[in-house]
Design a protein that fits this description.
It contains 19 helices and eleven strands. It is an alpha/beta fold.
Length: 488
């Protein structure tokens, strides 16, 4: 299938760049109920990149505007929108910078909506809107300096305006680096968002990635105090399938699509065969990630690490290899070759500034050619031997610096989801997986409960050929061993 048709079928992987996103986005009433709740004035959406944070904010923006076009003012800002060519501030200076910046954004919106500026606060608001190029009344005198307007006046304008403000801050942690300046800048923003709430009717929704939130919580007490307002964003297997099915239904203009979407409400409905909508372009996704697996499309959720963006990327790669506009097991194996490589590159780039040795750690652990490590001691010994290059020992005394060094490496691999925890149940087939987003403190020490087994995630097992994917690359093409050569 050609690239243009795939883009039409699956849409853009980035919700903020997809003009049709709202037409086929699935409802997340469980999350939206909390996000629109005006009693919860500050919420931090804490989820990895690719989890759908931007898409969730787009739907929130839409819902708020539909609820009240006259009372609600919705403002969405990205880090790229903001001029940060500033001197090196202290944390307190960053808090004050962000606090005023937020108040000015709100005042500008008030100024745009003032039809007749009669009172002083209305005139000042209109002048702010004019200075930012959103009014043309020429109310602002030539010597008007926004920085001279006291912060107390900005708060007064917002309070008197009568509007309800919803500030949506997305990707404010982009280009994060493990440096004091960048840490203070982001920690200052989190605190400033809290401080502006002393003005009535301001609501803030901010996105951040879990590993960055963990770093900030390690360095700043005030960030630790924000744990209660964090909101996680995860997707069940059925929800990922529904995302894919709704995009297909939109592209194919399926009139009675809703009847085919009912099965996605039950994630245990995995033995009924591929959904009619999905079957149009995809065969069963069960790639035998587990012995005697009956999971069918559940494998798609595993390979994409439960993230919509990566699920769509994998499906697009599979369709690129599909000769007749339908992908099957051969196309999935070929797609895994590129998809797994992309995930390795992504992790190395995403975490380079605070963990430049991550790629070496991943390759080192993979050199053991083992998928699972039964217990934390075996994981520690594998890190000692394959990453640190020292002779592993079964037991180390408390205070041994090797314990701290190996624990930091294990935490990093767990945080980026290169390894995951598998908790045993009562029977061999009874188990559950634990992710960093669910339990970030699981590796607080090497004393982890004995029911935990550590394993390299299936996506990376295939990317690093720990599990043979039977693929190889020749030129720009990915081929499978034993596959007949196509005619030139």
């Amino acid at each position: 299938m050609d690239t243009a048709r795939i883009t039409q079928l699956l849409g853009n992987e980035l919700a903020q760049n997809d003009e049709n996103f709202s037409l086929y986005a699935i409802k997340r009433d469980d999350l939206m109920a909390r996000l629109v709740d005006r009693t919860q004035r500050y919420i931090i959406i804490n989820a990895p990149r690719g989890s759908g944070k931007s898409g969730l904010l787009l739907k929130l923006d839409e819902n708020l505007k539909l609820a009240s076009k006259t009372q609600n003012i919705v403002i969405t800002k990205y880090l790229i929108d903001i001029d940060l060519d500033l001197p090196e501030f202290s944390l307190e200076q960053w808090i004050q910078f962000w606090r005023r910046k937020i108040l000015v954004w709100l005042v500008e919106e008030v100024g745009v909506r003032i039809s007749a500026a009669e009172e002083r606060w209305q005139v000042i608001a209109a002048q702010f809107a004019e200075i930012c190029g959103r009014r043309g009344d020429r109310l602002a005198p030539e010597d008007f300096k926004p920085e001279d307007v006291p912060t107390a006046m900005l708060e007064l304008i917002i309070a008197r305006s009568g509007y309800k403000f919803h500030l949506l801050l997305d990707e404010m942690d982009d280009n994060f680096q493990e440096s004091l300046v960048i840490r203070d800048r982001l920690a200052g923003l989190l605190q400033a968002c809290k401080s502006v709430l002393r003005v009535p009717d301001i609501h803030v929704r901010l996105t951040i990635r879990p590993h960055i939130m963990t770093i900030l919580q390690t360095h700043y007490d005030h960030v630790q105090q924000l744990r209660s307002i964090e909101l996680g964003l995860t997707w069940r297997p059925g929800q990922l399938k529904e995302i894919l099915a709704r995009r297909i239904a939109h592209f194919d203009q399926v009139v009675d699509a809703e009847q085919f979407l009912l099965e996605f409400e039950d994630d245990d409905n995995t033995d009924s065969g591929p959904n009619p909508l999905l079957r149009r372009y995809f065969d069963d996704f069960d790639m035998s990630l587990e012995e005697n697996s009956r999971s069918r499309f559940r494998a798609l959720h595993t390979l994409s690490l439960g993230r919509p963006r990566w699920m769509l990327e994998f499906c697009a790669l599979a369709l690129q290899n599909a000769p007749k506009e339908k992908a099957g097991s051969i196309e999935y194996k070929k797609a895994m070759h590129t998809f797994g490589s992309n995930r390795m590159k992504f992790l190395a780039g995403e975490h380079y500034f605070h963990s430049p040795d991550l790629q070496a750690y991943m390759n080192g652990l993979a050199s053991k050619r083992k998928i699972r490590f039964s217990g934390s001691t075996n994981l520690r010994k594998a890190i000692e031997q394959s990453i640190l290059g020292i002779q592993p020992v079964s037991k180390r005394e408390p205070g041994d610096p090797i314990l701290d060094e190996t624990l930091e490496i294990a935490r990093l691999l767990y945080m980026v989801e290169f390894i995951r925890a598998r908790q045993k149940g009562r029977t061999p087939r009874d188990y559950r997986f634990i992710t960093y987003a669910e339990r970030p403190s699981l590796l607080a020490s090497w004393s982890v409960e004995p029911t935990i087994v550590w394993e390299i995630h299936p996506t990376f097992c295939r990317a690093l050929n720990i599990v043979d994917n039977e693929t190889f690359k020749t030129g720009d093409a990915v081929r499978i061993f034993g596959e007949p050569k196509s005619e030139p």
